[in-house]
Amino acid sequence: LATGVVGRRKKAPKDKEYEFFYFVQQWPGSVCDAKRACCYPKTGRPVSDFGIHGLWPTYNDGSYPSSCDSTLSFDVTLVEDLKGRLEEGWPTLACPSGDGLKFWSHEWSKHGTCSKSVFNEREYFQDALDLKNKINLLKVLTDAGIEPNDEFYELQDVQEAIKKGLGYYPKLQCNEDMEGNSQIYQVYLCVDKLGKDLIECPIPPRANCPSRVQFPKFYELAATRMCWAHRASVSQKA
Ligand code: 5GP
Ligand code: 5GP
């Protein structure tokens, strides 16, 4: 099983107001070296940094509303001036390669519309980008000696480094690379209902990661593929 449960995730009624946000960032190295692999966005290879996955309205018990208003479909003209920032900070890694619109549209429709009491579409994306700017996760980790260099780290050290750097504990979600190593895949931080400040997560962290986790390099895709081909040929010979 590549990804696992982080917290409780029942869907809940859409008419109840959400209570906080999960701000979820993904590590591109772990998206791309997993079995499902990845595709670079049409706009080019993302930088080697965490990218936004989403800003998700959630209830304090861990359940969450979704797809709250089908009349508010994603309108790209409303975020035209944010496009450059979205491409950089919220890149799509799904296949086939896209320009990001599908990913952003999905996130807005599924999650964003559930925070319409606080944000319109433009404000929703602007807020997520501003959060990303404020929260330099990669710097916090590298300052603590936790670098994307294929090394393994104690999960607790990773969590403590984020707590020390940002003031709040994250939830970590792991997935597996092709060799079955558990690696840092997504980092969940909790943000207050107005989308402004980090808060302590209402639900105690329940990471699906083992006690030691890899922090993989974000390899060039060509290198990743060659690496797999090499491993496959080695295991065939063995
Ligand atoms: P996964 O099963 O990959 O962890 O999550 C699948 C999708 O369910 C996520 O991309 C997200 O859209 C939604 N989701 C998962 N957990 C939560 C949560 O705790 N809160 C909210 N609001 N959405 C979640
Ligand atoms: P969620 O898990 O938020 O419900 O949905 C994520 C959706 O966005 C999936 O349909 C997935 O294919 C698409 N998607 C596009 N680009 C990305 C990406 O870079 N990361 C993830 N996790 N999903 C992406």
UniProtKB/TrEMBL annotation:
<keyword id="KW-0378">Hydrolase</keyword>
<keyword id="KW-0456">Lyase</keyword>
<dbReference type="InterPro" id="IPR033130">
    <property type="entry name" value="RNase_T2_His_AS_2"/>
</dbReference>
<dbReference type="GO" id="GO:0005576">
    <property type="term" value="C:extracellular region"/>
</dbReference>
<keyword id="KW-1015">Disulfide bond</keyword>
<feature type="active site">
    <location>
        <position position="107"/>
    </location>
</feature>
<dbReference type="Pfam" id="PF00445">
    <property type="entry name" value="Ribonuclease_T2"/>
</dbReference>
<keyword id="KW-0540">Nuclease</keyword>
<dbReference type="InterPro" id="IPR001568">
    <property type="entry name" value="RNase_T2-like"/>
</dbReference>
<comment type="similarity">
    <text>Belongs to the RNase T2 family.</text>
</comment>
<dbReference type="InterPro" id="IPR018188">
    <property type="entry name" value="RNase_T2_His_AS_1"/>
</dbReference>
<feature type="active site">
    <location>
        <position position="53"/>
    </location>
</feature>
<dbReference type="GO" id="GO:0006401">
    <property type="term" value="P:RNA catabolic process"/>
</dbReference>
<dbReference type="GO" id="GO:0003723">
    <property type="term" value="F:RNA binding"/>
</dbReference>
<dbReference type="GO" id="GO:0033897">
    <property type="term" value="F:ribonuclease T2 activity"/>
</dbReference>
<dbReference type="InterPro" id="IPR036430">
    <property type="entry name" value="RNase_T2-like_sf"/>
</dbReference>
<dbReference type="InterPro" id="IPR033697">
    <property type="entry name" value="Ribonuclease_T2_eukaryotic"/>
</dbReference>
<keyword id="KW-0255">Endonuclease</keyword>
<protein>
    <submittedName>
        <fullName>Ribonuclease T(2)</fullName>
        <ecNumber>4.6.1.19</ecNumber>
    </submittedName>
</protein>
<dbReference type="GO" id="GO:0016787">
    <property type="term" value="F:hydrolase activity"/>
</dbReference>
<feature type="active site">
    <location>
        <position position="111"/>
    </location>
</feature>
